[in-house]
Write a structure and sequence with these properties.
single chain, alpha+beta, two-stranded antiparallel sheet, 6 helices
Length: about 140
């Protein structure tokens, strides 16, 4: 009997590609930041800060720098008074739009699966707390 290796070379390459993706998108905030920029095309720092509930200025700055290093977003300093910084997806970053849309669709279905179709969700504007009212 011939023993086959558990992992083939092709499987190892696939796993490495998934790991590369996860490395570029890892963390609590990156997908939300990319989603904000993706939805509006161009966003200022303060706009992203308002969209991504719970993130601090320091963390947003760090995450934006990492996304820029990974060539997913482009930072543009506008010649305005006061100076305005704008972020947009690069062509490489735009390749994530399908994934973001799929995550959104899955998230809606997941919420319905967990909470049920007869529930309403209220999200407080100043926090990340969701209140669930069930009609059951």
């Amino acid at each position: 009997m011939n023993c086959k290796p558990i992992r083939t070379e092709e499987h190892k390459k696939d796993l490495m590609a998934v790991q590369d993706s996860m490395d570029a998108l890892q963390g609590k905030w990156k997908i939300s930041i990319i989603s904000s920029i993706c939805y509006y095309n161009k966003r200022r720092f303060s706009d992203i800060l308002n969209d991504v509930i719970g993130i601090s200025n320091k963390m947003l700055s760090k995450e934006l720098k990492e996304l820029e290093i990974n060539k997913l977003i482009k930072r543009t300093v506008l010649n305005t008074q006061p100076i305005t910084v704008q972020y947009e997806l690069t062509e490489h970053g735009k390749s994530l739009q399908t994934i973001i849309n799929n995550l959104k669709d899955w998230g809606i279905k997941h919420r319905k699966e967990i909470i049920g179709n007869n529930s309403e969700i209220f999200i407080h504007a100043d926090s990340d707390v969701a209140l669930i009212k069930s009609d059951l």
